Amino acid sequence: MKLPALVPVLFMAYLTAGLARPKTIAVGLLFSLAILKGIQRGERIKWKDRNIEINERYITYAFWAAIGIIIYQVIRLGNVPLLHPAIRTSLNPRLTALTYFLGVPSSVYLFLRGRRYALIYPVAVSLYAYRTPVLVSAIALGSAYYENAKRAGKLELKKLAGLLAGGVALFLLITFLRGNTLASLWVRFQSTVSALDVIVWRGDWYGTYLGGLQWAGVTSYLQGGYSPRGLIAKFLYVHTGATITATLLGGMYLDFGVFAVAEGFLLGLYYGALSRATHPVTKAIYYSTLAYGVVGVETGILDLPVYLLFLAGAYLIHKGRKEMGEREAP
């Protein structure tokens, strides 16, 4: 099974394990099949990976800038959120987002280029006491190692297991330091599926926010206001200030109802096409967005930094197709 197929497979496994309602399972299955169809179609798209002309030193600067932002925020707070999780809400959201935007792809690129210090990033970002960026980083780095080492015939399962185990260890460390237990993770797991159940049950079949929810992923970063997960909480009549995740499908369904399958197809199309990347920069974007898709099975893809990475990948595919067309033109 190719790595992009993990997204729809894990999504259906998530719904099944969470005991989703039959209607939710049916909609989720259509959505997952659309992703798989998109992957198959994307793999047949012809494009030339010309890469983005970026000198490696600038990517190195981006990596250390991400580490520097983390250190700056810790110093500004006067304490480490990992040790005192309650203060993580005082982190500057724009700086935190910039950390993710710069840190994930730059660390993957440097890792692909053999710079082992790239593994500093998942450890450093764990200081924020948020679990999602740690999982994203571990999955992105693990995927990069797995595919490239396998292609070169140098795959070592111990190294792959070490990368993933390190990410899981950081995830569990954050969980326990935040006062959570494995049982509480299970409760969150089921509540996320339950939120999707309510969305599919109460939401309009043609969509409720009509694109406004996902667009809030842009506006909330730039000018404040409701975030996408805040709008999900509002729809579910949860008190003001709360945010709720509703799986990969939840935000799309609230926006476009059953037509969310079209977004699923486009997501698969993107992964299928970009999986043919050959240059390190393009690969770094591919593995970063793939990791966000895998983690997004639970959290959704609803944040501006992630949107920008997907746009960068889509631009590279478009650029490669255009160059192929110009080369083949008479």
Automatic annotation (TrEMBL):
Keywords assigned: Membrane, Transmembrane, Transmembrane helix
Residues spanning the membrane: 12-36, 57-75, 95-112, 119-140, 160-179, 253-273, 285-317
Pfam families in UniProt: O_anti_polymase
Annotated protein name in UniProt: Uncharacterized protein
Protein origin, superkingdom: Archaea
